[in-house]
Amino acid sequence: MGTLVSIDPHFWAGGSLGQQLAPQEEPLLAPFVATPQEIVDEILRLAEVRKDDLVYDLGSGDGRIVIAAAKRYGARGVGLEIDPDLVRRSRENARHAGVAHLVEFQEQDVLTVDLSPATVVTLYLFREANLTLRPRIQSQLRPGSRVVSHDFDMGHWQPAAIRRVQDKTGRLRTLYFWRIQTRSPSP
């Protein structure tokens, strides 16, 4: 089992860390950095998750966001993660939490997923990944859908709200919230 490394997201903002971590042909959208539970809770509150929502977490890591949405609100969830070990861990975490009937985890590249079924999308990816995904988010999500990004904005797309939250370690986190008003034309 590998070692988890805590990386300050402000360090990655320049985008060069992706190449430093793992030289590869495909760009690294973000390394797995677990979101603290108090930040998960705030993400779900900010997104106004309800029982009738379908929450998509892009780059779902160990599944904690969709699992928490299912446990706290009874919402259905889909975690999308490219790392097969994290997908297996997420499925196991969902079983242990008693919400495997409400959530699913797919081994998939988030750049290719159909987002249209989602009513809530959460992400903790590099800013460059957010910018790549933004046109698909804006064109595929229905009006009224909500989007929350942890620590990284989406360029010129102005959020409806920005919330700064301190985690238990004292680190200040930034959450960006958007509500889809109208669908944009497909990219």
Radius of gyration: 15 Å
Gap between N and C termini: 39 Å
Structural class: alpha/beta
Order of strands side by side in the largest beta sheet?
A: 3-2-1-4-5-7-6
Relative strand content: 15-25%
Unreliable runs: 1-26
* Average residue pLDDT: 86
Number of helices: 6
The sequence of SSEs as H and E is: HHHEHEHEEHEEE
Describe this structure in words.
- The structure is a single chain.
- With 187 residues, the protein is an alpha/beta fold.
- The protein is built from 6 helices and 7 strands, in the order H-H-H-E-H-E-H-E-E-H-E-E-E.
- The N terminus is likely disordered.
Task: Please specify the SSE layout and strand pairing.
Blueprint: H1 9-12, H2 17-21, H3 37-46, E1 54-58, H4 64-73, E2 76-81, H5 84-97, E3 103-107, E4 120-123, H6 127-140, E5 146-150, E6 161-166, E7 172-179
Parallel strand pairs: 1-2, 1-4, 2-3, 4-5
Antiparallel strand pairs: 5-7, 6-7
